[in-house]
Structure formats: structure tokens, C-alpha cells
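In this section we walk through a basic example: taking a raw amino acid sequence and producing a predicted 3D structure, encoded as C-alpha cells. The instruction is simple. Fold the sequence below.
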Amino acid sequence: MLWHRLTFLHVKTIVPGHKSGIQCLHYDGECVVTGSSDMTLRLTNVETEQCLHVFENGQNQVLSVLIQGDLLLSADTQGHVYFWNARTGQSEAAIQAHDAAVNKIAFHKGRFFTAASDCTVREWDLLTMTSVRVLQGHKGPIRDVKVSNERIVTCSDDGTIRIWDLIETKRTLRHK
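The resulting C-alpha cell sequence is shown next.
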């Protein structure tokens, strides 16, 4: 469902066409990408409601999706991150990012971040697709990650929110 941001009135309902429940989505103002337990992603134009591409995510449930320009990323239950060309619908690459489920992907200034059930967050260089930093400290699966210019914020099944200094990479605050 699409809601108006000022009035909170329902604008439209979009049915991407998944064969199973939708687990995650990302909206860039023009398109919405959805990830499903049917192991597919669907890129849909919000205005026309036309499905632009269907992406096959292998044999694993999609847990997180992210669209940044022509780049689409998806993460799954087995720790993989897939890179897709949103314009052409073609697969670009795939990496084994973690040994456990990648629950969330975030993007910031040419880097992407993965939050996983192995209790770590990894920062990745987008060009080389290599891990440049690992943040550890949570005692349970990490469910979400948000990134700003100076901080990384994570939340976990351990009941804590951790705020990390992006510049110095140390944990700056723990909230329970």
C-alpha cells in the first residue's frame, strides 16, 4: 500500500505478483523493489504498477533489498548478497557476506553494510566487494542497521541498540 506522506491517506495498493509473502521492500520514490519468501525480487514502477523485472534469488528466502540508482542489492537466509542491474534486470555478482542470514542491507557513500544473524555488521567496499570492517559486540542476531555520516546504529535480538562511531569504528553507546 502506498500512503500520502502529509495526509497519511491511502493512495494505492500495488500487487507485485509474488507467489508467497513479501518479506522486505525498498522504495526510491519511483520504483519499489520487494523481496519474498518465494525466493524472488520484483521491481515495480509505482506510478504505472508495471513489474519491470523479476529477479531469481537462488534457493533462499529474500530478507533485505536495497536500490541505489541502477544498482539493486538483495540478501538472503544463507548469508549471500546479490548485486543486480535494476535497469537491465541482469545479475552482476554475488558474494558470501556472512556465515548466517543477512537480515538487513544499508548503503552509504559508496559502501554497503550488512547486518547478520552471526551477531556482526560488516562494512563493504562496493567497487571491490571486499569487507573493510567488522563490528562485533551484540550477543544476538542483528536485525537492522542504519548509517549516517558519523554513526552506525544497530539493533539486535539481545535487546540492545548499539551506536558505533563510523570514523573511529568504536562502539560509542549501548542502550538497553
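Looking at the output, two observations stand out. The chain has a mean pLDDT of 89. The two ends are 33 Å apart (CA to CA). In the next section we compare this with other chains.
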